[in-house]
Amino acid sequence: MAAGLCPAAAVCAGLGTTLDRARFPAELLIVRGDLQRLISPRSLSSAEVTGLEGRIESALTGLEWLALEYAALTKSEIAQPLLQNLDRSWAQRNLLAVQGLVSQLSRMYPLNGTIFSAERATADDIKRARELDLQLCQGCHIDRVGTEKILPAYRLEEMAGNMPSDEFLARLLSGVRGTSDTALANPLSLGDIRGLLRLYQEGAVD
Ligand code: HEC
Questions:
Q1: How far is the CA of 92 from the centre of ligand 1 (A)?
Q2: Neighbouring C-beta atoms of residue 154, cutoff 10 Å
Q3: How far apart are CA 171 and CA 33, in angstroms?
Q4: Distances from the Cα of 148 to the Cαs of 44, 48, 145, in angstroms?
Q5: How far is the CA of 160 from the centre of ligand 1 (A)?
Q6: Ligand 1 centroid vs 175 CA: distance in angstroms?
Q7: Least C-beta-crowded within 10 Å: which of 35, 107, 157, 169?
Q8: pLDDT band at 5 (very low <50, low <70, confident <90, very high)
Q9: What is the rounded distance in angstroms from the CA atom of residue 41 to the CA atom of residue 24?
Q10: Strands of 6-63, DSSP E
């Protein structure tokens, strides 16, 4: 997180470490969700299927590194054999085995969402989240499931409604930083994330 872009450096510095610790558990939840969609691709276009495969492939490639970072930050052990099995199963495109392993890892390394809880959003957080959503997010996030795009920007409220809340938080934490999102990712503060969760998960979008 670039402190220069951050309106409240102290808060953001805190979020920096919190985000670093969240990266591995968040990635596991995202891969788990992407796999589920790939295994039963109801109503997905062929472009969406291609996009999902690409995302899972690159997520799995980076997983070992995230696991090392997580182990160092939390002084915990990472189950290396599980990660190796994961690579092997993906190479064989044994999707059910991959899904089983990712679910197992996700239970071992859960994302602790307490600090981001929508319940903690203040009135100001919600106001700012509404503005962000209206002025930025809604401009791109207009796609519906089934669109012929490799990387669609789905409607965020629908996305939130279609997945477990920890998975949506994970996507909010690590998804908002793709190339097109980079300039927007940095200014997101803890309060923004709480506010956005409140907005999308409770269907309060304008
Ligand atoms: C310039 C267009 C653009 C803007 C503005 C934008 N997004 Fe995105 N966003 C995208 C695209 C395209 C993707 C899909 C990239 C991908 O899946 O790798 C994406 C992905 C995401 C994801 C991850 C989705 C997933 O499937 O994992 C989340 C969450 C997200 N954006 C939230 C936001 C929020 C919140 C805002 C406003 C603060 C925002 N985005 C603003 C284009 C945009």
A1: 30
A2: 18
A3: 10
A4: 9, 7, 9
A5: 13
A6: 6
A7: 107
A8: very low
A9: 25
A10: none
Out of 141, 194, 199, mutate this one to test ligand 1's pocket (max ligand atoms within 8 Å of CB): namely: 141
Question: CB of 140 closer than 6 A to ligand 1?
Answer: yes
Position in ligand 1 atom list of the atom nearest CA 55: 18
Give the pLDDT mean for 25-44: 94
Identify which of 50, 12, 11, 16 has the alpha carbon closest to the alpha carbon of residue 34: 50
- So what's the pLDDT on residue 42? 84
Q: What is the DSSP letter of 134?
A: I
Answer whether 29 contacts ligand 1 (Cβ < 6 A): no
Q: Name which of 8-12, 73-77, 97-101 the model is least confident about.
A: 8-12
What was the pLDDT predicted at 179? 46
**Is the CB–ligand 1 distance for residue 178 below 6 Å?**
yes
**What is the distance between the alpha carbons of residues 141 and 103, in angstroms, rounded to a whole number?**
28
Residue nearest to atom 16 of ligand 1 (CA): 151
Give residue 177's pLDDT: 55
Q: What is the mean pLDDT of the chain?
A: 86
Q: Which amino acid is at 192?
A: D
